[in-house]
Amino acid sequence: METIKKHFFSDMGVMLGRSMRHIFRSMDTIITVTITPIAMLLLFVYVFGGAIQTGTDNYVNYLLPGILLIAIASGIAYTAYRLFIDMQSGIFERFHSMPIARSAALWGHVLTSLVSNAISVAVIILVALIMGFRSPAGVLSWLAVAGILALFTLALTWIAAIAGLSAKSVDGAGAFSYPLIFLPFISSAFVPTESMPSAVRAFAENQPVTSIVEAIRALLSGQPVGNDIWVALAWCLGILIVAYLFAMRTYKRKAA
Questions:
Q1: Which end of the chain is more exposed for a tag (fewer CB within 10 A), N or C?
Q2: What is the pTM of this model?
Q3: Exposure b/e, 230-239, CB count within 10 A at least 16 = b
Q4: Which residues of the chain, if any, have pLDDT below 70?
């Protein structure tokens, strides 16, 4: 047992490599988590952007945080899908029959989600720079943005783990992600909430995406962040802790 615990990180690294190879070989995954968000960025900036009033001359600066969150929400759907496939194929039972840490397979999927979404986010930011995105943010502000996005990714990934472990079908494993992908559209990601009807505005201003978008936008534009960053961190950490506890409980029950 001590030997298994000692090699937990190397086992998790093997699982990470296995899952990353699956992603790089899946054109559907690459199109959904990277190409589609870039297409949305192009569409909203060059087609709709001229008709949208946000109080800024550079709409790509305003839009980028929301596009990054949509890309992450799209990416974690594949975590649930691949976890479900592994559960149904019996590969977890085969892993558990080997002298490896029992939770390494699950953590491998979680780490894969973090790495693959970080790659998608980096590619999208590079495209945004080509389109005219500019930021006066310093190193600390960029690190804060990276930390918020990493927490957001982990929080959604553990929700995806619950779906992947509990689903009865492939469709069920991926269906949970649709509301998450849709949330940025009812937030300040695309337009200011002041332009929305009162009921929609109340929802938009009190759901997690708006505070996360506003915190990232303020950090990247060099503006005071205010309370948005604390509200964003509270949402991310709260969802992360609750989802982690439920996911690990489900995993232990399935693996028993």
A1: C
A2: 0.88
A3: ebbbebbeeb
A4: 1-6, 255-256
